[in-house]
C-alpha cells in the first residue's frame, strides 16, 4: 500500500505542492479572526454540568451578578486613608465611575460596608469592588481603562484588576508570549537545524513543515469553533508541537532518504524505500501521540478538551506534511537536498556510515553486555527523580499565581495578597434549595456556619427568586490554600436539611478536583489501551507495548517529580522566571501526562521501528537492539534537543501553569531520549530476548493480515541494518526464537 502511495506522490509531486501552497494561503487568511472566537476566562476550567456552576447560574438569574466575574479597582491615594473620616475624592470618583457603568450591579467599598479590611495595611490604598453581570471581557475592560485614563482624578491612581480583567488579559498575555517566542525560537531553531541537517536547504524543510502544521491546524480549529468553544491556551500546544513534531518527523524522513540515496542513484526508489520504512515509523509515531491526547477529550473542562483538540489537530497536520508534502519536496529536490552545505559536511553525508554511529554502537555493546546492572541503575535514577511526587499538592488557577505582575490584574492580585490583611474580594456562596417558609431553619444554619473554624464572616441569608436562598460566607486566608480548603470541607459537611450547592474560588477549586478525579480513570484507560493497540499494530508483539507503557510511566513520573521540585517547592524556579507556587495547578499534570506520554512513546517508536527492521531481516534480538540504537542514536538525540528548543516557546511565556507544561514536556523528552532509550530499553530487551516479540497465535495471524511487516515490503533495507558487520542478511533467529 505504501508503495503505491509513494509512487503517486512522486508522479503528482508538483500538484501536491501546489495544493499545499493553496491550503497554507487559505489557512493564513481564515485564521486571522481566530482570536476573537477563542475563550480565555476562568470558566475554561468549569464543568458546565456541575453543581457549583448551577449555583452560579441560580445567583445570576436572581440578582444579575455573575460571581465568576467582577471589577476590583486598586485605588492609591497620596494621603493616608482613614475609614472614620470623609472619603477621599479619588476613592469617591472610582466608586462613582463603577456605579455609572450599566453592567455593574453593586459597588462595594470600605465606607458602604464599614469594612476596614478594604484598606491596605499602610493606609495608602483601598479596593473598590464592582459586582457585575455576564459581559464580554475583551470589550468592557478596554472601555473601563480608557475611562480611567480620561479622568484626571483617577489617572495614575487607579489600577484595574479582578477576574474580568484577568480573563481579558490572559488572552493578551498568551498571544504576546507566543509572538515573542516565535521571534526567539525560529532563528535559534534554524541555526541548529543547519548544524543537524548539515545544510541550509535540508534545514529549511522542517521549518516549512512547522509553518504548514501550525497554519493548517489553526484552520482546523477555526472550523471547529463553529461547533464548540475552544480555549486560547490550546494555541501554546499548537506552536510547540507544530515546530517540535515537524522537526522530529522531517529529521527521520530526510535522514533515511539520504541513507537510501547513498545506496542507489534512483531517487524514486530511494523515496519509496524511505516512505516504506521511516514513513511507516512516522505514521505510527503520530498515531501514538494522537492516541495519548484523545484521553483529554474525556474531560468536560474546556481547557482540557481544547488541549486535546488542538494537540490532535497539529499532530495530524505534522503527519500530513511528513508523509505527503515532504516526500513531494524531496522528489523535486533529489540530490539538491545537500545543496548550500559546507564541503566537509557533504563529505560526511557521503560516508557509508555516520561517525556518530560508532559511539552509539559502543554504548549499545556496554548496555546489552550488562543488562541487569544497566536496567537497575536507570530505574533507580528515574525513581529518585520521581520521589518529589510523594509530596505533590494541587490548587486551582487564580489570577494571583497565573498572571504576571506586568498585567494589571496580576499586579492587583499580588498587592491584595501582600498588602491587605485578608481575602477581601473572594467570597464563597452557599445556595440552598428551600421554600420561602424555610427562613428559621436557614437562619439557624447560618449561625452554625459562624461557629465553624476558619469562617471569618457569614452574611444574613438572602431569599432569591423561586425556592432558593443565598448565604454568602468569607473564609480566613487566601482561596484554595490547605487551610481554606479544609474550612470549605467543613462547610460542605454541615447539613442545613435542604439540598445545597456551593460556589466561589475555593468551592470551585474543590469541585474541579472532584470532577477531575471522577474522569481520570476513564481518560487513563483510553490513553493506555490506545497506546497498546497502536504499538501492537507496529510491532506485532504484546510484550513490547506493555513494556513501553511501563517505561513511559517511569519517565513521566520522573518528569512530574522534577516539576514538583521546581514549581511547587521553588528550587531553581527563578531560573525559569517564576517562583515556587506551593502547589501545581490541578489540570497541568493531566495535560503534561497526556503530552509527555505521547512524546515518550514517539521516541520509543523511532527506536522500535529500526529494531523491528533488524529483527524482521534476520538479526538476533541483541543484534537488532544494537543496530537500532546505532542507526537512531544521532537522529533521536538531535530530534529530542530540537524538540526541547521548540517547547521553550511555552517555557518562555509568563503564565506559571503554562511554564509547568512546557518544562515538564521538555524534561520528559530529555529523560526518554537519554536514560530510557539509551539504557532502559536496550537492557530490558536484552534480558527478555526473543520473548520481546511474543504474541498469541490468533493475534500473530491478525497482525500479519492487517499490518504487513515493513521488512517484507522493502527487502533492500536488510543490508543497511546489517552494516555493523556482525552477521550477514541470512542470519536466522536460531538463538532467539519467536516463541
Automatic annotation (TrEMBL):
Membrane transport protein MMPL domain: residues covered: 72-372, 466-717
Entry keyword annotation includes Nucleus: no
Membrane topology: Multi-pass membrane protein
GO CC list: plasma membrane
Entry's transmembrane regions: 12-34, 178-197, 204-225, 237-257, 278-299, 305-333, 363-386, 522-544, 551-570, 590-611, 632-657, 663-695
Localization per record: Cell membrane
Compositionally skewed regions (Polar residues) per UniProt: 721-732
UniProt keyword annotation of Lipoprotein present: no
Major localization listed first in the record, in broad terms: membrane
Disordered as annotated region, ranges: 718-739
Record SUPFAM superfamilies: Multidrug efflux transporter AcrB transmembrane domain
Key words, A-Z: Cell membrane, Membrane, Transmembrane, Transmembrane helix
Entry similarity comment: Belongs to the resistance-nodulation-cell division (RND) (TC 2.A.6) family. MmpL subfamily.
Protein name: MMPL family transporter
Species whose genome carries this gene: Antrihabitans cavernicola
Amino acid at each position: 500500500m505504501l508503495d503505491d502511495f509513494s509512487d503517486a506522490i512522486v508522479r503528482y509531486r508538483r500538484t501536491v505542492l501546489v495544493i499545499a501552497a493553496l491550503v497554507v494561503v487559505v489557512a493564513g487568511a481564515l485564521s486571522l479572526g481566530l482570536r476573537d472566537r477563542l475563550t480565555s476566562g476562568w470558566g475554561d476550567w468549569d464543568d458546565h454540568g456541575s453543581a457549583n456552576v448551577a449555583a452560579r447560574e441560580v445567583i445570576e438569574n436572581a440578582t444579575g451578578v455573575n460571581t465568576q466575574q467582577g471589577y476590583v479597582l486598586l485605588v492609591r491615594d497620596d494621603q493616608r486613608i482613614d475609614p472614620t473620616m470623609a472619603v477621599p475624592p479619588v476613592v469617591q470618583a472610582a466608586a462613582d465611575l463603577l456605579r455609572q457603568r450599566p453592567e455593574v450591579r453593586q459597588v462595594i467599598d470600605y465606607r458602604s460596608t464599614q469594612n476596614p479590611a478594604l484598606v491596605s495595611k499602610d493606609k495608602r490604598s483601598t479596593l473598590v469592588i464592582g459586582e457585575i453581570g455576564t459581559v464580554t471581557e475583551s470589550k468592557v475592560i478596554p472601555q473601563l481603562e480608557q475611562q480611567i485614563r480620561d479622568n484626571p482624578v483617577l489617572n495614575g491612581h487607579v489600577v484595574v484588576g479582578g477576574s474580568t480583567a484577568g480573563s481579558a488579559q490572559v488572552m493578551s498575555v498568551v498571544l504576546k508570549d507566543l509572538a515573542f517566542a516565535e521571534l526567539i525560537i525560529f532563528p535559534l531553531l534554524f541555526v541548529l537545524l543547519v548544524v543537524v541537517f548539515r545544510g541550509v536547504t535540508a534545514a529549511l524543510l522542517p521549518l516549512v513543515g512547522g509553518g504548514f502544521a501550525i497554519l493548517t491546524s489553526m484552520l482546523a480549529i477555526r472550523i471547529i469553533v463553529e461547533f464548540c468553544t475552544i480555549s486560547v491556551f490550546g494555541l501554546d500546544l499548537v506552536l510547540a508541537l507544530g515546530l517540535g513534531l515537524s522537526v522530529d518527523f522531517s529529521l527521520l524522513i530526510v535522514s533515511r532518504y539520504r541513507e537510501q540515496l547513498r545506496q542507489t542513484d534512483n531517487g524514486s526508489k530511494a523515496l519509496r524505500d524511505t516512505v516504506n520504512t521511516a514513513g511507516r515509523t512516522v505514521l505510527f509515531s503520530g498515531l501514538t501521540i494522537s492516541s495519548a491526547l484523545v484521553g483529554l477529550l474525556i474531560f468536560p473542562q474546556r481547557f482540557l478538551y481544547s488541549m486535546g483538540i488542538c494537540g490532535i489537530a497539529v499532530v495530524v497536520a505534522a503527519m500530513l506534511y511528513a508523509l505527503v508534502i515532504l516526500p513531494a519536496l524531496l522528489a523535486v529536490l533529489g540530490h539538491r537536498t545537500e545543496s548550500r552545505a559546507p564541503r566537509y559536511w557533504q563529505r560526511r553525508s557521503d560516508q557509508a556510515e555516520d561517525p556518530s554511529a560508532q559511539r552509539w554502537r559502543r554504548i549499545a555493546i556496554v548496555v546489552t553486555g550488562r543488562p541487569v546492572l544497566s536496567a537497575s541503575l536507570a530505574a533507580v535514577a528515574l525513581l529518585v527523580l520521581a520521589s518529589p511526587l510523594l509530596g505533590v499538592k494541587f490548587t486551582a488557577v487564580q489570577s494571583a499565581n497565573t498572571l504576571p505582575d506586568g498585567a494589571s490584574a496580576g499586579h492587583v492580585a499580588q498587592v491584595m495578597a501582600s498588602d491587605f490583611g485578608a481575602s477581601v474580594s473572594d467570597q464563597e456562596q452557599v445556595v440552598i434549595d428551600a421554600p420561602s417558609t424555610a427562613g428559621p431553619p436557614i437562619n439557624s444554619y447560618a449561625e452554625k456556619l459562624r461557629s465553624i473554624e476558619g469562617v471569618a464572616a457569614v452574611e444574613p441569608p438572602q431569599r432569591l427568586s423561586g425556592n432558593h436562598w443565598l448565604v454568602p460566607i468569607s473564609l480566613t486566608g487566601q482561596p484554595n490554600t490547605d487551610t481554606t480548603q479544609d474550612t470549605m470541607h467543613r462547610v460542605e459537611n454541615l447539613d442545613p436539611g435542604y439540598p445545597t450547592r456551593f460556589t466561589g474560588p475555593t468551592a470551585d477549586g474543590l469541585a474541579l478536583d472532584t470532577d477531575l478525579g471522577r474522569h481520570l480513570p476513564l481518560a487513563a484507560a483510553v490513553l493506555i489501551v490506545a497506546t497498546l493497540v497502536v504499538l501492537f499494530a507496529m510491532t506485532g508483539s504484546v510484550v513490547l507495548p506493555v513494556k513501553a507503557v511501563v517505561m513511559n510511566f517511569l519517565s513521566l513520573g520522573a518528569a512530574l517529580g522534577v516539576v514538583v521540585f521546581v514549581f511547587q517547592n521553588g528550587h531553581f524556579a527563578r531560573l525559569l522566571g517564576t517562583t515556587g507556587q506551593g502547589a501545581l495547578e490541578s489540570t497541568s499534570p493531566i495535560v503534561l501526562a497526556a503530552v509527555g506520554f505521547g512524546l515518550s512513546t514517539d521516541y520509543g517508536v523511532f527506536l522500535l521501528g529500526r529494531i523491528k527492521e533488524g529483527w524482521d531481516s534476520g538479526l538476533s534480538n541483541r543484534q537488532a537492539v544494537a543496530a537500532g540504537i546505532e542507526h537512531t542514536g544521532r537522529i533521536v538525540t538531535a530530534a529530542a534537543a530540537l524538540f526541547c528548543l521548540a517547547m521553550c516557546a511555552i517555557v518562555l511565556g509568563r503564565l506559571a501553569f503554562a511554564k509547568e507544561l512546557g518544562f515538564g514536556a521538555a524534561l520528559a523528552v530529555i529523560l526518554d531520549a537519554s536514560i530510557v532509550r539509551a539504557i532502559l530499553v536496550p537492557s530490558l530487551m536484552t534480558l527478555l530476548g526473543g520473548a520481546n516479540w511474543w504474541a498469541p497465535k490468533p493475534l500473530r495471524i491478525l497482525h500479519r493480515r492487517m499490518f504487513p511487516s515493513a521488512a517484507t515490503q522493502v527487502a533492500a533495507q536488510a543490508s543497511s541494518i546489517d552494516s555493523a558487520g556482525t552477521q550477514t542478511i541470512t542470519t536466522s533467529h536460531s538463538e532467539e526464537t519467536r516463541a
